[in-house]
């Protein structure tokens, strides 16, 4: 069994309000430099604030009887398709159009985030 590692993000405002010092501490027996490097890529500095950016877009998928339907969890995007492949293509396109229409909503995500989906597989009769 491997030990869980907890990574904490600390932001310290310096005397100059436009400068922020970001330090990452890995609370484990050894510092995991690879994870710290990966985490640094997902930090966005805005003035005195440090913001951790999302690496994935979450969506729910279900079958309504006629179509496969997809709905984003974190913002208002919904689409459907006759097949799962069609739905996935439609969902990716709808997300891209949403971000083009509302660029500020994409600022919470890293460039080229992953699409993570959860699918309702229906009832289980036991």
Automatic annotation (TrEMBL):
Judging by the UniProt lineage, the source's domain of life is Bacteria
Q: Gene3D superfamilies, alphabetically?
A: 3.30.160.250
Mind telling me which PANTHER family this protein's record contains?
ANTITOXIN HICB (PTHR34504), UPF0150 PROTEIN SSL0259 (PTHR34504:SF2)
* The protein, known as: HicB-like antitoxin of toxin-antitoxin system domain-containing protein
- Identify the species of origin: Desulfosarcina ovata subsp. ovata
């Amino acid at each position: 069994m491997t030990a869980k590692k907890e990574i904490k993000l600390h932001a310290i405002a310096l005397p100059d309000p436009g400068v922020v010092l970001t330090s990452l501490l890995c609370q484990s027996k050894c510092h995991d430099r690879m994870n710290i490097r990966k985490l640094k890529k997902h930090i966005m500095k805005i003035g005195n604030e440090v913001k951790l950016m999302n690496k994935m877009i979450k969506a729910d998928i279900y079958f309504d009887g006629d179509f496969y339907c997809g709905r984003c969890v974190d913002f208002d995007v919904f689409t459907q398709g006759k097949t799962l492949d069609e739905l996935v293509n439609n969902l990716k396109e709808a997300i891209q159009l949403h971000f083009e229409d509302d660029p500020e909503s994409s600022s919470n995500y890293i460039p080229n985030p992953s699409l993570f989906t959860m699918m309702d597989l229906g009832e289980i009769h036991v």
